[in-house]
Amino acid sequence: MTSTRPFEPKNGFVKWFDRQLPLFSVMHGALVAYPTPKNLNYWWSFGSLAGLMLGVQIITGIILAMHYTPHTAMAFASVEHIMRDVNYGWLLRYVHANGASFFFIVVYIHIFRGLYYGSYKAPRELLWMLGLVIYLLMMATAFMGYVLPWGQMSFWGATVITNLFGAIPFVGEDIRTLLWGGFSVDNPTLNRFFSLHYLLPFVIAGVAILHIWALHIPGSNNPLGIDVKGPQDQIDFHPYHTAKDAFMVSLLLLIFFAVVCFAPNYMGHPDNYIQADPLVTPPHIVPEWYYLPFYAILRSIPDKLMGVVAMFAAILILFALPWLDKSKVRSGTFRPIFKQFFWVLVIDVIALGFVGANPPEGAWLIIGRVATAYYFFHFLILLPVLSRVEKTRPLPESISQAVLAKHA
Amino acid sequence: MTKKNILAGMALVVGLVIPSLAFAANEGEEPKHPKQGWPHEKIIGAHYDRAAAQRGFQIYKEVCHACHSLNLIAFRQLEGIGFSEPEIKAIAASFTVMGEPNMETGDVEERPGKPFDYIPSTFANPEAAAASNNGAVPPDLSLMVKAREGGASYIYSILTGYREPTAEDLKHVSGGKIPDGAHFNPYKTGHVIAMPPPLAEGIVTYTEGQPAASVEQMAYDVSTFLAWAAEPKLEQRKHMGFLIVAFLLITSGLLFWSYKRISKQVLGH
Q: How far apart, in whole angstroms, are the C-alpha atoms of residue A362 and residue A374?
């Protein structure tokens, strides 16, 4: 992408620095002069919002780690020490715990935006796949983070999830022993989860940089899904998107702090305020809400190994999406049938979430199985067939023409 | 995106959050909690009823403490429910704690509590607690209000919910009868509770000028105290939340206005 505004620093220090290491011109290219399609809507702000939440998590996490003790005998009490004795420790912890949920909310919106507008299609396949890598890393990081307070759900969630790996043929038992650092979830497990929970966010940050890099090569997709034809279709990132994203950041923080300050335990589970006890199993072991659709898929398959395979396949299938959906038209706006089924998929995933939150019996089990079947049907059969047979609506000439027509 | 799509998008956000509601939901068996609307559950002006919390501490000390520990609370923290420094010193001194090793002999001796001490448990260790309570350790109460669905209302319901089971009640009890030494309580999962009814008229004498110590009043007071014990920074959090939300509402409005202005300048609409 060529910038419409070349980097011409006036400051002598910046000039000298940038000649030797073009850090300023790279930042200028990414945050000031990055040319974006003129017609991006508010859903395109969620990438910036995801970056913000990652930053919030890393900063609060680093400070929390200064006060936390990763030992089975002390972890629970050290979290309560943070809540009671550390200055604003309660704020840090509630921001971090709810920050994980909000990071996922933002990222789920970001992913579904990509699904609707065909942002995964050429020339952005790699960008999409890097995003999925971030998502997988987030799942691993959040899972290990939830273990650290060493409450009942921490312990039993860790037991259930790590046991899944035991279902893998031949190497499963060894992988599980390696995850545990012994023969059950215990102090070595807590220690390695703490270590990895501190490490992985920086890996996420690294992949996020690759994700942004891969974005800036082809440039952003847009609601019309058509290519940028020239400068008349574009606008610089600054000041337009900096102003727009600043508004969206403020709106996100408004909702976020309303939850942090007025309902900080709403998305948590009361059982996690009971210290982990390996001898007492809670009546219902449920993972955090952001895993529930996949947990539902896992439990809708009667065979343990096949359940694990289905659960991982549900995520891995998204890596193949650019090749499953062959439609030349990117945006769902111009795909009348695809559009309907997109919302069916949204409802399907939400339904799976509810199924995952309830015991796998009676109607829930049936709904879970139907919804799981639809999930795979959608990606493996519907999208490949649809991309061949669907009659798409005519695409506009160009972005600027469509924008002019809209505001005429 | 059209308006319809935006609405659907909002439904998506809500839909992603709501599943947490589903697994927060109870079995659907326990009756609704009779006591609702605690002053500390308000959004604006949330506060712990100080007088009730102080009476609740008296209940804890004279009744609950015989079996239940309160490990996370130090005497100094009682300042949070309005006890003065001399009062806290006196309260601490009324408990006996294990002191520090004697510098000359190395012996550890008991001494009266000091404000920096944590409230000592009646039992030396969990095994001793179990031995005195039919083999089960009475749970620590520091976080009980946050560890149960319903919060303070749950504690109140449990304390006031004891009654003789009817034939209909027993249908919902596993095995159809209450085991020996256990008690019927409709608010407990499974409706059977090991703890005998802890509160009874006249078990505690409140000081002059306080309300009469009825079972309901005592349950209200000790629930308030335990709510504070579980979340001592609640008042600060909600007060700060009000300021943050007000600030961000104004900021969001200003930022929206400035975004629209910039949009007009650089895009023309």
A: 19
